[in-house]
Amino acid sequence: MFRRPTRPYLLASDALAGAAAFATYQAARFAWQWFGTPEMYPSAMLLPMATLVGYWMLVFAFFGLYRERFAASRLEELGLLGKAVATGVLVLVFAIYLDALRPGSSRAAIFFYAVAVFGYTGLGRLLVRSWEKRRLLRGIGRHRALVVGSPDRIAHLRSEMARYPEAGLFVVGTVLVGNDEDEAPWDVPVGSAPSTATLAPPTDDVAVAANGVEAIPRLLETLGVEDVLVTLANDDYDVLLDVLRVCDRRGVTIKLVPDFYTLLGGMARTEHLYGLPLIEVLPSPMSPWQESTKRLMDALLAAVVLVVGLPVWVLVGMAVRLTSKGPALYRQVRVGQDGEPFTMLKFRTMHDQAEAATGPVWATDDDPRYTPLGRWLRTTRLDEVPQFWNVLKGDMSLVGPRPERPFFVERLAAEIPLYNRRHRVKPGITGWAQVKRPYDTTVDDVRTKVKYDLFYIENMSLGMDVQILLRTVRTALRGEGR
């Protein structure tokens, strides 16, 4: 795959474009004097140039322009670049006092600089993307794809893929599933080549599995799969859920032939890879600029809460130590984004070694393990304050699904369809499920809260985060937590 070496080329192209735009603007302003005679001339060039080049690269990163855009439309990328340049120029206008420009020429100079940045950067990116496309047509850098579905649909999909080599997909494995799976003409074990077939069979270098969904995880690992292409009939919805379950948290992109679009609703996004129609399942829920803004908001608010309230948090920690035996902070391993474990911090609310005899169990109403102070901390949600440190570290967000312990994640993922979908985003200190429902005490409670979590993930936005934070503050002030 070429997702790794692409970014350095883009960075180099953008750096050269930024330098060229600055040099062109300086020449137009001071040498050619297109915007009138300047009242002062710069004494240095390299430092301002390097500063602006770094600034633009940060702006582009904020808008997600350095993320992988495999076989994506170059016009779509230019549109996103235009938004990034417009935003970046507006920030510069408010950040820099342009007193060296005459009032009548200021707007012309700003517009000229914006066009120069967009023109040079866009040209550089078009060259890089065109080079990538030529590599794809030569078979270099293609994504390794696993095709899952019924035999006739697989044959049709493979013939369509052969018509669009620009899509950059290379089939390395085939898995036969679906309600018509028994009709498979390729009933062979993984790694064998089919001897006969009534339909167009896979090529000899393709692994074939006729034992269904459970073969997928092993193929993903052994074949280095990057994309899973699913083509099923409309009555195979349960099979699709199984495919999503076994592929979740495995770092692959799932794409469907469009038959399932009406069933999946907001969980899918239609895309065309150079004419090959596919639907991406479980796409990234927020745009890159929203993700960047969310992370910035998380870090700033977490820092403010920790620094401004530091004397209070020290007193709370001392009170926990003095009122019960054990440490002030309780450390517990939780499952975070993409299934990665991390250590979550809380003010200790239960007696020390509360689960030593029982093992992991959920809290209940009037749980005897709570200390008197701990019960008050849970009611006011102050026990969650140390998790602002987890937010600063990047393990958590202010808003998101609550992280669960690995013991319960393994159990719940086996019982609740799409439970692991929660791990596609960072866990949060609070979330939509937390402001709508009480703490979990049973599996049924978890089932209900998963629905709220999935609703949040499919509809998450900065505005929704602010709404949840305000509701959480209201819950804490009213003492309605538990």
Give me a quick take on this structure.
The chain is α/β, with parallel strands linked by helices. It has helices at residues 3-31, 46-62, 74-95, 103-137, 151-163, 216-223, 237-247, 261-264, 288-308, 310-323, 372-380, 387-393, 406-415, 432-436, 443-459, 462-478, and strands at residues 143-149, 169-176, 207-209, 227-231, 253-256, 268-273, 276-281, 329-335, 341-347, 397-399, 428-430.
Domains, number: 3
Beta-strand proportion: 5-15%
Instruction: List segments where confidence is low: pLDDT < 50 over at least 5 consecutive residues.
Output: 180-205, 260-267
Rounded mean pLDDT is: 79
Summing up helix and strand content along with how strands pair, one would put the structural category as alpha/beta
Most strands sheet: 7 strands, mixed
Structure notes:
It is a single chain. The two termini are 49 Å apart. The protein contains 16 helices and eleven strands. Helix 1 packs antiparallel against helix 4. About 7% of the residues have low confidence. It is 50% helix and 12% strand. A seven-stranded mixed beta sheet has the order 3-2-1-4-5-7-6, sandwiched between helices. With 482 residues, the chain is of the alpha/beta class. It folds into three domains: 135 residues, no CATH class; 139 residues, Rossmann fold (3-Layer(aba) Sandwich); 191 residues, no CATH class.
